[in-house]
Amino acid sequence: MANSYFQFKQFRIEQAACAMKVCTDACVLGALASVAGARRILDIGTGTGLLALMAAQRNPQAQVEAVELDEAAATQAAANFATSPWAGRLRLHPVPLAVFAATQPTPFNHILCNPPFFRNSLRSPNAQRTTARHTAEDSLTFAELAGFAARFLAPEGQLTVLLPPPEMQQFEQEATAAGLYPTHRLVVHHRPGSKPLRHITTFGRQPAPMQQQELPLHKADSADYSAWFREALGPFYLAL
Questions:
Q1: Which residues have a Cβ under 8 Å from the Cβ of 214 and sit 6 or more positions away?
Q2: Grouped pLDDT means (10 residues each) for the chain, 240 residues
Q3: Residue 82 exposed, middle or buried by CB count within 10 Å (0-12, 13-18, 19+)
Q4: Exposed (0-12), middle (13-18) or buried (19+): which is 150, by Cβ within 10 Å?
């Protein structure tokens, strides 16, 4: 059974009420997304509040907002924000993305999202977990996410998304159709040379040559974390 909380160096994530718990790939996204210099950051589908909190820690000047449609997760994320050192810079919107869009928010410099992505797998009997994990007709579609970002990113703003490789290919098509273009891709593996687990892709408004970086989580012949992982997650993980 997953822990009811996850303790980081500077904040604590209570997660008992959230369908999707803290996971390694989301932590990698939070640690590596290019949020330096961003004055306004948005985390779409914040869940526990993890990405928003990591962004607030990494960028002490940013105002960080988050959207979460699940009532229980939104309540827990708001509580996690309130007990963090950055409560004054964090704001939770407990509404669907379309409702938030209707408020015409001020453009964001960086939008982060770890969206639901299990398009074709079996639905969970747990309705909350299904909403957190599945897309298409269920909650947040790739087209909706790309369209929102195209409307509410600042002119030089960036969108960074975490998805498995097949789903990222589909999302890139939706993003391009909306006028957003991939500029940088981080390919996350268990170990050097192993099958890619996740793509963390950054999009901007201008087409640019794609830059790609391979990121193994562990050393080649060891369970030890890789050097880049230790450097990136060192400010967050207690054990690093």
A1: 187, 189, 192
A2: 84 93 95 97 97 98 97 96 98 97 98 75 41 47 96 98 96 98 97 96 95 96 94 96
A3: exposed
A4: middle
- Is residue 114 within 8 A of residue 26, CB to CB? The reply is yes
The whole-model pTM stands at 0.90
Topology of the domain comprising 21-231? Rossmann fold (3.40.50)
Q: What's the CA angle centered on 203, arms 179 and 80, to 5 degrees?
A: 120
pLDDT at 116: 79
Q: Domain-by-domain residue ranges, the chain?
A: 21-231
Q: Which two tokens stand for residue 201?
A: 């892709």
pLDDT of 140 reads: 86
Per-residue pLDDT at 133: 41
- 96: which residues sit within 8 A by CB, 6+ positions away? 67, 69, 139
- Three-state DSSP string of the chain: CCCCEEEECCCEEECCCCCCCCCHHHHHHHHHCCCCCCCEEEEECCCCCHHHHHHHHHCCCCEEEEECCCHHHHHHHHHHHHCCCCHHHEEEECCCHHHHHHCCCCCEEEEEECCCCCCCCCCCCCHHHHHHHCCCCCCCCHHHHHHHHHHHEEEEEEEEEEECHHHHHHHHHHHHHHCCEEEEEEEEECCCCCCEEEEEEEEECCCCCCEEEEEECECCCCCCECHHHHHHHCCCECCC
- Residue 200 to residue 148: CA distance in whole angstroms: 19
